[in-house]
Amino acid sequence: MTAQAVQTAQTEMPRPEYPRPDWQRQDWLNLNGTWSFRLDTAEEAVSDFGSLQPTDQFDSEIIVPFSWASPLSGIGRNDKGTGWYNKIVTWAPAENGSLIFLRFGAVDYRCDVWVNGILAGSHAGGYGSFEFEVSGLWKTDAANSIVVRAEDYDVSSQARGKQGYGEIRGIWQPVWLEARPQAYVQSAKFATKLDGTIDVQATIVTQQAGVAELQFSFAGQSVQHTASIQLEAGSNAIGTSFQVSDPQLWSPETPHLYEGTITLTAEGAASGDTVETYFGIREIGTARFGDRSYRWITLNGKPVYLNGTLDQSYHQTGYFTYPSDEEMRNEIYLLKRIGLNMVRIHIKPEEPRKLYWADKLGMLVMEDMPCFWGNPDETARTSYESEAREIIDRDFNHPSIFCWVMFNETWGLKTNPQGDGLTGEPGQQSWYLPDTQEWVRGIYHWAKETDPTRIIEDNSPCNYDHVESDLNSWHFYINGYEQVREHVTDIVEKTYPGSTFNYIGGNAQTDAPLINSECGNVWGFTAGAGDSDLAWHYRYMLNEFRRHDKMCGFVFTEFRDVTNEFNGYYRLDGTDKYFGYEEFVPGMSLADLHSADFIVIDAPPCQTVQAGGMAEVPLLRSSYSDRYHGQRLQLTYELWYDSLGIRQVSDSGSLPLDWSGFGVDAIDAPLAIKLPNVDAVAVLAISLKDASGAVVTRNFITFDVRSGSSNGVYEADGQFVNVPVTGFSEQSFAFQWNAIQEQKTNGGAAGQFVYDIQLPSEEEQAAIHQLDIRFEASAKRLLVRNIEGAKDRAHTISFMHGANANVEYNRNTYYMTDDERHESRVHVLIDGERVGSFLLPDNPADSRGVLSWHYQPVHNLLDEAGSFGYLCSVQVPSRITAKLDRSRSFKLTLEAEEGGLALYGRNAGRYPFDILLQVR
User: Fold this and answer.
1) 89 and 102 in contact (C-beta within 8 Å)?
2) Beta 210-218 vs 258-266: how paired, if at all?
3) What are the φ/ψ torsions at residue 228 (nearest 5 degrees)?
4) Of 8, 163, 287, 527, which is most buried by a Cβ count within 10 Å?
5) Is 608 helix (H, G, I), strand (E, B) or coil?
6) Mind spelling out the 3-state secondary structure of 170-181?
7) pTM greater than the 0.90 cutoff
8) What is the pLDDT of residue 803?
């Protein structure tokens, strides 16, 4: 895939679209593609960058706009150093006398640019966009030489963010030339109100004083406004406003954009300056509702529940540069298809074109500022402030952005930190000095003043160290239902105005909204992050969030897997993971857990219960949309179970719910349900439906129903014999081990498990006319740890810089079900004679492995959690049954080919039996 992507980038111009659809001119030239290149890795001692001279020595070619560390650049060297670029360009603007600008989406980190041997300008900062006016240097009738020097030595004061997944070195966003008239619109910021008032703050640059007209035309010219203005030579700050009648509001559900143009026509000018742009009418805020003492986040004046995810915004071949506009669009599509309405772009600003797709398709964006990793000294602070200003100025007009996050997990804010933990240790809080805390407070206030239209967060904390913030957020990575429940409840109870919890330096909480800004189970285990099933944990965690009226949303880590974290909704390449929810409730998907209107099942994901009894299940309604307020909805439920491959229903019913009001309320009485009389994994499946019968949301919990009989009780004729899967008399696998408290056995690669089977005696059963053998089995994918043994790794900051997780050595790893399959074929033999064969499609693990999750011995150390198999059923031929009627014993052999074999016992997998013999 990588080689193909590199070849495509070299033969076609990469990223041919205009880089800024939010601020676009028509007369421009894309400079992406092949440039001459040289990489110097020896660090230079440069005291005066202005005295540097451009080089004419180049020894390779690079594909712009890709970091020289990335495969798509054609260089693929992750070396610090100085990259020299050169491109020969012939181009003239369409209008004589136009100004010519050389524009850069982003260059990491220190950049110097020469045009035809003359220094055009310099810039420092890895994430902001910048430009140089090169009109006086440009030859419109001949070839021009552009030389770029990009220096990136990862100095401790530079804002790097989370580049360890793939370094952004040198030019890493598009480069282009652009023509403008002598008087042009430098920028325009739109502030919108719900009544349709649009306030505009524009900057206009002109070569000479005079009268001009600034015209706004949007929505197919249905929105028109013209302002007459007096300009002075140089830069002019202009304010104006206009009204949109019958305003169509922007939201994730209805992402309405007012697309159009801004045109500046200066008196006496031959032509005007026209910029294509857009705005969305929406208001972000926080507000109290009812008699609550805390605020909720609001969008357009109404509460909004933020179903969000953390996005490293990383591509495996382009790193932080997407190969194509289509892939950026697909990123937003993949978020929306699972019902998310928010994404947190992690420790970096997003590329403008991806923000455009968030605007266009409807996705709220929480955008982080990139952090530095050194001490918060004056150099680092100055550099940070400069980049933050560039980022907010560039991205101000994107309606999708609702929040700026100024810092993350106190990274870069601790002075001489003594540890190297993954996120810092609470015991190190003293190193977050009072002086730095006050600087952070100042940054918060600066951001509020710069952009009063959005929510500002001072620091997204894992060490409970807010200073002053519009959001009261926190991070946690914990596995285990009881542990998550206890933790979230504790956080909620400690959240109230005046509480000093989650704040540092004598500061205290206000009534700011409570939101989780990072969560999951990736780092919540002994021995660190493996690659395991998310589905089980995710469902009960979201139930716990929706249980609390104070909670305004969450940010799940993360959107896609990355190089050393395997906790995404999707794999890094965008392929699917399978959560298995549709197996419990027909039609259910991740999107059901992200519904604005939700039914909370206030119970564990699985409970052990006695067969034939009753169970009470408390329910709550959670509503963060007024779509169904004032309506009567219908809650339907069904308790079903698998009876040896046949679906049975033990109980069912419905109840009407008057759906009114925002927030969380208990449903009057718990559901009382009748449990089956047999050993079974029973599923309580619920659906909330509107008046037309359309499903609003779905949810479920499970029960391990136990009869107490040693051989189990099942709905079928005859006697049953359960043979423990770990009770084999011999085995011939090269690698064999048991798991889940001896309830599961594994063998890899090819080999046999042999069992000595004793059937009921003649006294117990006079005749055996029929024998059925059932077992649950899957393929067995051998991991490195299964062969060489597990290797633990300490949680250090190296993971944030892209350290190899060596995931197959990790004792928690058991790959979640995804598009990749690992099949095996198993043969069933009785006394050496084959009586059946099965193709086992995969070695899966997801929420369907109910018993493998329910009987995990340690909450933060996974033992093949979520793993399960396929029901295999053999009816023994009568000619063999006749022999067994006489012998009453036989050797059962389960023989696997190269794909290996895993067998699931009574307390593992998804079927509550071992090797089950049904004798009739």
Assistant:
1) no
2) antiparallel
3) -90, 130
4) 163
5) strand
6) EECCCEEEEEEC
7) yes
8) 81
Can you say how many angstroms the Cα of residue 110 is from the centroid of all Cα atoms in its chain? Answer: 31
Strands 273-279 and 284-288 come out as: unpaired
In the predicted model, is pLDDT for residue 730 greater than 60?
A: yes
The residue ranges of DSSP E strands in 589-693, in sequence order, are 597-601, 606-610, 614-617, 619-623, 631-643, 646-659, 663-666, 671-674, 680-689
The 10s digit of each residue's pLDDT in 131-148 is 999 999 999 999 999 999
Instruction: For residue 698, give both structure tokens.
Output: 């779905």
Can you give the pLDDT at residue 60? 97
How does pLDDT run across 54-109, given as a tens digit for each residue? Answer: 988 999 999 999 999 999 999 999 999 999 999 999 999 999 999 999 999 999 99
Between CA 365 and CA 252 the distance in angstroms is 10
Instruction: Give me the residues paired with residue 204 across strands.
Output: 185, 236
Q: Could you give the CA distance from residue 882 to residue 288 in angstroms, rounded to a whole number?
A: 77
Amino acid residing at 405: V
**Beta-strand (E) ranges in 831-910?**
833-840, 870-875, 889-896, 901-904
Indicate the pairing of strand 306-311 with strand 553-556: parallel
The confidence band for 528, taking pLDDT boundaries of 50, 70 and 90, is: confident
Instruction: Classify residue 534 by burial, with Cβ atoms within 10 Å: 0-12, 13-18, 19+.
Output: buried
Q: Whole-angstrom Cα distance, residue 30 to residue 573?
A: 28
pLDDT given for residue 52 in this prediction: 83
Write out the H or E segment, with its range, that includes residue 306.
Answer: strand 306-311
Inter-CA distances, 374 with 136, 273, 410, Å: 40, 44, 12
Which secondary structure element, helix H or strand E, spans residue 380, and what is its range? helix 378-395
Question: Is residue 772 helix, strand or coil?
Answer: strand
pLDDT score at 527 = 78
CA distance 578 to 818: 6
The residue length of the chain stands at 920
**What pLDDT digit, counting tens, does each position of 561-592 carry?**
998 889 999 999 999 999 999 999 999 999 99
| pLDDT of 446 higher than 60 | yes
Cα dist from 430 to 422, 642, 857, whole Å: 17, 56, 37
C-alpha radius of gyration, the chain, whole number: 32
Q: Nearest to residue 198, comparing CAs of 240, 156, 251?
A: 240
Q: Which two tokens stand for residue 196?
A: 């349709």
pLDDT in tens, 41-55: 987 766 565 668 898
- Look at residue 389 and tell me whether its pLDDT is greater than 70: yes
Q: Is 484 helix (H, G, I), strand (E, B) or coil?
A: helix
Residue 206 DSSP class: E
Residue with tokens 């599961």: 744
Tokens standing for 868?
């399960």
d(CA 772, CA 520) in angstroms, rounded, equals 43
- When pLDDT is averaged across residues 550-555 and rounded to a whole number, the result is 98
What is the pLDDT of the chain when averaged over all its residues? 94
Nearest 10 degrees: Cα torsion 547, 641, 758, 827: -100
Instruction: Look at the block and give the residue holding tokens 């599509």.
Output: 333
Are 689 and 647 spatial neighbours (Cβ–Cβ below 8 Å)?
no
Cα–Cα dist 797/625, whole Å: 40
Q: How far is 369 from 378, CA to CA, in rounded Å?
A: 18
Query: E strand or H helix at 854, and its extent?
Result: helix 850-854
DSSP reduced 3-state for 212: strand
For residues 689 and 681, give the distance between their C-alpha atoms in angstroms, rounded to a whole number.
Answer: 26
The strand pair at 342-345 and 306-311 is best described as parallel
Residue whose token pair is 């027909």: 586
Asked if residues 273 and 298 have their Cβ atoms less than 8 Å apart, the reply is: no
CB 506 within 8 A of CB 434: no
Angle at CA 421, nearest 5°, toward 416 and 422? 120
Tell me: pLDDT of 269 over 90: no
Tokens of 564: 């050393």
Distances (CA, A) of 320 to 351, 525, 869: 9, 28, 38
Paired tokens of 747: 């063998």
